[in-house]
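Listing S7. Sequence submitted for prediction.
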Amino acid sequence: MLTPPPLAVKIVVRTILVLGFVLGLALLAAAVTSEAPPTWWWVAGVLSTLVGGSFVEEWLRFRLRYRTPEARREYLERFLEGASQQEPGRARLAHQAIKHKKAVLRSGIDGTAVVTFLADGHRGNEVQHLLYLEFDVRIGDGAPYPVRTGEYLTAASSGTVCPGRELAVKVDPQNPQHVAVDWERSLRLRPPA
């Protein structure tokens, strides 16, 4: 189970961030009042103020939302309990699976996969986001076997992927755990009713 960092570590980190915020404000004030301030005063002042300021803002927001030590302790317990129940590494596994996708699509063996589970991969941009996927993969008449992988999808296409959906895939003949969805072929398959 996850444990919170020791109090000494929290104090040191908070002190560094708050001092960075104060130092950033001081550098910006010096740059404004100086006739010809060095450029690094502006750069260091802005960066220190932004990093330290975002910490101070989050810290104040947290303290205003959870005003008593009991409320903060309860929040921390809930947070740590939820973090320990998540399967570690889903996002990392999904992201690493993407590295093999192009090679597998080029030289892989045709197969089918039924989606058994999907989750957010916590990566992406405005156009695409990463999905962590678990499949039951079947090659030809062979028995299905489980695979965990990831795919970058647009918001529109991620809505068509759900548990029970059959997809056309390519499987690496050297490593059957490397599976890539062939979206062009998958679009021709009917989604589950």
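Caption to Listing S7: primary sequence and predicted structure tokens for the chain studied. Residues 7-33 form the longest helix (27 residues). Helices lie at 7-33, 39-65, 69-85, 90-98, 101-107, 155-158, 183-186.
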